[in-house]
Amino acid sequence: MRIVVTGGAGYIGSVLVPRLLAAGHDVRVLDNLMYGPHAILPLFIHPNFSFAEVDVTDRRALEPHLRDAEAVIHLAALVGYPLCKKLPRRAVEVNVDGARNVAELSPPEARIIYASTGSNYGEVVGICTEETPLNPLSLYGETKTRAEEIFLERPGTVSLRFATAFGIAPRLRLDLMINDFAYQAIHNRYLVIYEKHFRRTFIHIQDIAAAIQFMIERPERITHRVYNVGHDSMNYTKEQIVQLLQQRTEFLTHFAEIGSDDDKRDYEVSYARIHETGFRIEVDIERGLDEVIGALRYLRLQNPYSNV
Ligand SMILES: NC(=O)c1ccc[n+]([C@@H]2O[C@H](COP(=O)([O-])OP(=O)(O)OC[C@H]3O[C@@H](n4cnc5c(N)ncnc54)[C@H](O)[C@@H]3O)[C@@H](O)[C@H]2O)c1
Fold this sequence. Notes:
2 domains; UDP-galactose 4-epimerase, domain 1; alpha/beta; single chain; globular; binds nicotinamide-adenine-dinucleotide; Rossmann fold
């Protein structure tokens, strides 16, 4: 299948695209390379891979690259609440207007997968299903929710509300909660945790890629427009994650009673709907944490102000 992946040079894209190529698809990545090209450079050897440096806010540049797509996976975005807070105008331009461009310029018969997020649920009492009203707490969540509405107006679109990703990828992200905690635990040997009882829901990056691939390859299993993507066994409080990390590496933890986390997400999600499609995650929390702790100890970021 001819698949276009916007934002394909990012964290999710850098795991997803090699997987789609290995499965025999033709993949074209469209990305403005805001984090550089390194994650996709090894893909240029592949005969079924192509790339265009395109900004999704630029309709004219985007149009010819979408024209013959059979499927479009829309990942391009300014991701996370701190970045959107720092660049609010650009966040709306990219996450909302860029999404509208992709929705409007994709061929009508093309299947679209939109990378939505469980962040859209915000702070919820009880367990979120796909029917729970969205209550985004940040500009990031608001832009992702608006883009989801735009995509859902278009037939043939499936919106995947991912849990928070973790795990190792060619373009790594250390701002994600588990990756961040693990990096700090290994290299600073110290973690300060606010609001330790906050509940979050996680998914390994390989399983995000697998879920997107499943949605592309198994349309006969898809009976809904929106799916929470994750697994019921992957809902944890921050404190539980810290305890699991402590079983793998030695560090001190201070659970702060004073102060708060800027990230107010506190929610538990039901994954019954995606379970019905037959999709299953492969990486549980134990295996995922083993990977992250095993790998991140070799990532040494230079601190220019350190005396050692
Ligand atoms: N990682 C997660 O936990 C998670 C969870 C839920 C949803 N998502 C969604 O998945 C998508 C991908 O997230 P990620 O973690 O890979 O983030 P990322 O920041 O690593 O990747 C985003 C990619 O989009 C590209 N991009 C940004 N602005 C662009 C523009 N204007 N034009 C073209 N390309 C542009 C960037 O260069 C980057 O390669 C996002 O839409 C995000 O909201 C991610």
